[in-house]
Design a protein that fits this description.
By secondary structure, the protein is an alpha+beta fold. Helices cover 23% and strands 6% of the residues. It contains three helices and two strands, in the order H-H-H-E-E. A two-stranded antiparallel sheet has the order 1-2. The protein is flat, with a radius of gyration of 19 Å. The two termini are 37 Å apart.
Length: 95
């Protein structure tokens, strides 16, 4: 998911509500990537932190996150086999 989406979700009351019972005075409830993955029953949550300059050439720099306001859910099997469906396979030919 993009950084803006993660930042919005990490402060969402539903995520904070599920983590608040583990908080202590010096450590407030925080929805980390790991906690978010556990709540969503995922192995991991990845956040796109990359930015790019959207300004016209020669204009003042105007950076935006590459992911925009989006998130995607992909399946990746633990063991890779050629006949399995998965996101992110890269096929290369051999000479």
């Amino acid at each position: 998911m993009s950084r803006p989406v993660f930042d919005k979700l990490v402060d969402h009351p539903d995520f904070i509500d599920r983590t608040k019972y583990g908080q202590t005075a010096p450590n407030p409830a925080v929805a980390t990537r790991q906690i978010m993955a556990e709540i969503l029953e995922l192995e991991e949550v990845l956040v796109i932190d990359a930015v790019y300059n959207t300004a016209a050439e020669g204009a003042a720099e105007s950076n935006s996150f590459i992911g925009g306001l989006s998130a995607a859910l992909f399946y990746r099997p633990k063991k890779r086999r050629p006949d399995d469906s998965s996101a992110g396979y890269v096929f290369t030919g051999r000479a």
